Amino acid sequence: MIEIPAPPPRIVGDATALALHEKSRLRAAAEHARRALPGPVGDLIHRELLAHAEFGYRMWGDALIPRLAADVLSRPPSEEQ
After folding, report:
1. DSSP class of residue 57?
2. Which residues contact 28 (CB under 8 A, 6 or more apart)?
């Protein structure tokens, strides 16, 4: 007789939604990343911050994304543009 495994436990959707001002800050940091960090690094940071803003939920336990946004926003625009 073949035993059918039990389904995995249901995932609880308890992530906290981002407030509008938090989404705006992430989008602003994403756009500024390309000006402050030209090249592939700026493009990567832009994509990551924008993805987190568009997803709209807090998914981090270590506050890396908010720290990254603050770091990017503190940088002046690059002279390379």
Report:
1. B
2. 73
Give residue limits of the domains in the chain. 20-74
Structure tokens at 21: 């001002």
Cα distance between residue 16 and residue 56, in whole Å: 9
* CA–CA gap between residue 29 and residue 46 (Å, rounded): 8
Please give the model's pTM, rounded to 2 decimal places: 0.77
- Residue-wise pLDDT for 7-42, tens only, equals 888 877 777 888 999 999 999 999 999 999 999 999
Mapped onto helix, strand or coil, the DSSP state of residue 37 is: coil
